[in-house]
């Protein structure tokens, strides 16, 4: 494969999860494993492979419907199923109907490994794998199988694999943008101390890399507070940050931790700006007691726009989703999932045009895309395996009355220093 390498370089009940998976899998029940395809040419002359038959294209989703990101997982699954239904109604891809096989791992790495082993022989690509630790555990298998995979995780450690595509920015780039935002808007200044609460593991570690680098460039220092996904009361962390005299706090964790941080900080008088990585916010937080503190103190950095955006593609997606799933929240997971599905659909179409739907052909088609634009954010360049697909970050703000609970503050832009940072990473 000719790929350019310019520089080297993360709670629902089980019953609800089972019910959701049953609904999403209903459309796949009529198709046997024998039909999934194992190679050779189809009647239309298109070369097939795992997950592809003359009538169907099977995609896989390793998601979290019962763990800490269950709300996100449900949104992504439903958005991707909506895309599949729309695609099939329009005639499918390469004359074939698209099916999505959903497996819930509950954010448990071992369950995810088992689920991957179960579905990998019968799908051509994975438009959804939730969780940096999950993807990290599967990297060798995914690369061995040559299966195009879109993680719903943005750690820089996931870069560098032909078959694995981190969509948008990585956590470190977003944290560089966060420090830039705080500095540029004069919320912090040279000599200040910034707190950073972060999950242990690749997610938090990568985010901390970005914040520490940006702080050093700006003449500031970072006081880190490492936490676990099970830590939902951040009273101790707030006390430590207050004692350190922080002028702002970054958080790279989950929604429960962001809510606790903002709520406790407000209650204890630590009323400083808080900037969260995208996975640390969900609109459901605006229905909790922490909502006033979130609106008053928090911003979110993200590779994707708010779902309340006026972008025509986003507005169309929101209208379709609310019609298909009335009463369901339209959050960032909807946009993320739908965007990933559209991108993988474009890859499949391009591979079909080349006469092959093998995994190798799908990866090759994907890596040839230099300006992939779904209308749901910034264009992306997938030709650089060792670099993020985008370097542009949006700044958003919680808003209880907005669709998706977020509004845009700043449009996507590349923060100063990102080029230098990527070069420094080697």
TrEMBL record:
<dbReference type="InterPro" id="IPR028082">
    <property type="entry name" value="Peripla_BP_I"/>
</dbReference>
<dbReference type="Pfam" id="PF13458">
    <property type="entry name" value="Peripla_BP_6"/>
</dbReference>
<keyword id="KW-0732">Signal</keyword>
<feature type="domain" description="Leucine-binding protein">
    <location>
        <begin position="57"/>
        <end position="392"/>
    </location>
</feature>
<protein>
    <submittedName>
        <fullName>ABC transporter substrate-binding protein</fullName>
    </submittedName>
</protein>
<dbReference type="InterPro" id="IPR028081">
    <property type="entry name" value="Leu-bd"/>
</dbReference>
<comment type="similarity">
    <text>Belongs to the leucine-binding protein family.</text>
</comment>
<feature type="signal peptide">
    <location>
        <begin position="1"/>
        <end position="34"/>
    </location>
</feature>
